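go over this chain:
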Amino acid sequence: MLSLEAIEVRRDGRTVLALDRLQFGAGSFTVILGHNGSGKSTLMNLIARQFAPDRGHIALDGKPLASYGQRAFARKVAFLPQQMPEVAGLTVRELVRLGRFPWRGLLARWQPEDEQAIDRALRQTDITDYADHLADSLSGGERQRAWVAMLLAQQAPLLLLDEPTSALDLAHQYQLMALLRALNRETGRAIVAILHDVNLAARFADRIVALKRGRCFFDGTPEQLLSAERLSALYDVDIRLVEEPGQARRIAVVS
């Protein structure tokens, strides 16, 4: 359980994020939505411990977030930022192996369970056939799956992904979200992801948290969010819901 209480983050003398209370529980798939500048990345970086709030309290499993050592925190939380670092010269397997460092460090001897975790992550993300390929030679979708495999090898119960679909074409966006959904169901790991696409979020998430001007505008199920009035108020543009052939859920479009 990750909980935030009475949070405030300030930049250049103004409040960019203010939350009374927000929790992320075990096993859930949460998507964070909101307009540009709404505070989505600020929230993500806050819970990924990239910086501390100016005010408030964040706890992970009942302990202050700041009390965890770096490796202990990485055993609990795996974070995929929007801009991934360069991986020149690394094969996919070597990239995925990086996820084991919170458990082994730089100098410890690798154990059979490490290789088992790597192999399992490669299978789960369907990139075993690319294990010996250079990671930077893969397509965008394949490379994104390799990074997700690294997070899975880390075996943290909470996965944080900042706009994981932003560099992908439409087909790969749906493939990646379907993969994350399946992994959430099969492994029970909680996932928190930032997205821009309302319809993509509604299709795959259990829960949606929507931010507006640094405040929590909505926190509930996709079905509860899919209201033309609520979506229009969230994005400050007229939005209507239309029937999608073959689908039970309507989709949101700009009027």
User: Anything to note?
Assistant: The first strand starts at residue 2 and ends at 11. The radius of gyration is 19 Å. The chain has a mean pLDDT of 91. The CA atoms of residues 27 and 190 lie 4 Å apart.
